[in-house]
């Protein structure tokens, strides 16, 4: 009998998957190449609009035995990168970021006060 290939990537590798909402047809974990499941690629793909309506991002490492919702961390990183690049957060990511980091919207930074 032929064995099925393992769905577990490399021995010790963090993997990040995006739950995408497709509206009335439902939500699904987006299929992606195993080489494109690192955090940097997922953040780049989010900024480039590769996901319709991201809802949640889960990170895991089977070799280390952990998994967790990293949505808040990713939302923070998306805001930071847009700020660093002096660009607006893309509209298609606003709902995701507002869900996990609502404090970034409508925030006015105070100017330094002089005495």
Question: Would you give an account of this structure?
Answer:
The chain has 115 residues and is an alpha+beta fold. The protein has one domain (15-101). The protein is built from three helices and four strands; from the N terminus they run ββαββαα. It has helices at 39-47, 71-84, 91-100, and strands at residues 15-21, 27-29, 54-61, 66-69. The protein has a four-stranded antiparallel sheet with strand order 2-1-3-4. The N and C termini lie far apart (80 Å). The mean pLDDT is 85.
Provide a brief overview of the structure:
With 115 residues, the chain is an alpha+beta fold. Helix content is 29%, strand content 19%. Helix 2 (71-84) crosses helix 3.
> H/E order of the elements?
EEHEEHH
Distance between the termini: 80 Å
Q: Main β-sheet: number of strands, strand sense, barrel status?
A: 4 strands, antiparallel
Instruction: Indicate the proportion of strand residues.
Output: 15-25%
Apparent shape: globular
Average predicted confidence as pLDDT: 85
